[in-house]
# Entry
Amino acid sequence: MKLESYVEGRWHAGSGAGRPFADPVNGELLGHVDGTGIDGAAALAYARDVGGPALRALTFAERGALIRAIADTLGANRDAYMEIARRNSGNTAFDASVDIDGAIATLKVYARYGKELGDTHSIMEQGTVQLAKEDVFRAGHIWTTRPGAGLHINAFNFPAWGVWEKIAVSLLAGVPALSKPASATAWLSCQMVRDVVEAGVLPNGAISLVCGNGDGLLEGLTAFDGLAFTGSAATAHTLRRHPNILIAAPRFNVEADSVNGTILGPDARPGDAVFDLLVRELVSAFSVKAGQMCTNIRRIMVPAERLKDVREAVAAKLDNIVIGDPAVEGVRMGPLVSKSQQKSAFDGLERLKSDARVITGGGLPERIQGGDLDKGCFVAPTLLECGDPDGARAVHEIEVFGPVATLIPYRDQAHAIALANRGGGSLAISLFSNDADFAAQTAVGIAPSHGRLMVVDESVGKNHTGHQYALAHCVHGGPGRAGDGEELGGLRGLRFYMQRSAVQGSPALLERLAGNAAPACL
# Structure
């Protein structure tokens, strides 16, 4: 099997040998990915010149209907996607559902937003300001669609959700999307796009797909295009230095790796609901997608006097996780997606050991159910403990993208806040406490360094949506090393693809504009 790219309104096979992708459970070769010979600049121009006008001619409601049609098409093929996710990503059924059903759900959310925005083409912010002594000259702000294309470079861990959450926002804003999935897991992305194309639910040029290198894509960006990147901070730094990114200056949104954390409040004790909820969330962080989530918990900050309690509770549950081939009944955790990711995880783990000791795990699993331990890409759930968090560096700077997290003791509230912020900017952090004052004060202290905060007490209980999961209604992104970007967040996500302009004029003009626009109800 050789994956094809969909550009300029047709499917193209690369002209080179391509890069192999394999089943991470047993190393079986599944196919090749190759984008050689694809003209990235021409692909973007086609999207911009053909897909752009077609989408801009539609109202928000009509675009929402297209997005809903995509969701229905994907839903009809869900079973096939689940099998691809198992074979190509080593996903359990739950892992695959997080990705695939998450993609479909996000599309449905943005389809509803389109319906709510109605038969309009622009968005008007609420309120105007008087600019003259006489109330004859006012100012307001309007959002209109930029005449460009969206280039989406996606990470390997979410070949479904990562692709469609970006496309959903882009299409609703009226901007055509060109998606470039990570090669290791591009099979699922490719099949989904193929099904949508064959369903004929979108105008020509509305979506494009490049599987492989993506030569010429960055060079083809213009000032009115947008580049949305998800991946490593190192790759983001390389992209930022690209000559055309500097010269053409397209909009650039980054969602990069980060050392996310969680905090247990000093009020929590073993047997308390919040203590048990933290332990439950930690076990999920290790096992779901084998720890390969960009929002995953990497640092566990607990009161020093609770360190032993948390250590024992978490280690006992990790030892009971069944690892192996997701096709085998009872397996709860699969492998990492590739040998390169497995090696990267082991290399990072060695660096963490300079600051922390291994409590459990630390290498290959002792046993697996099905699969091949040598040819597969398995990593044992690994809990470490850092005895000197103030003097440590690695635990605050290195994200091991796998089932690895470090226990970190704190002395008091100020120390917990300082340690949380040592991550240098993260996508997500959670806090488990029944102490309302501690929770509120800590939230304010850590908010500047984190894109999303999840605070759980007994009243929330198991009803929370999970530390790891980015939702369409909330912004997804984080400051500092996390990229300083934002995606989703309801209608906030549309701002990346739309121009906000100040309009100065008579009250009558502004009222007319507002009457023809949807209100910006964020």
About this structure: Residues 18-257+484-519 form a domain with the Aldehyde Dehydrogenase; Chain A, domain 1 fold (CATH 3.40.605.10).
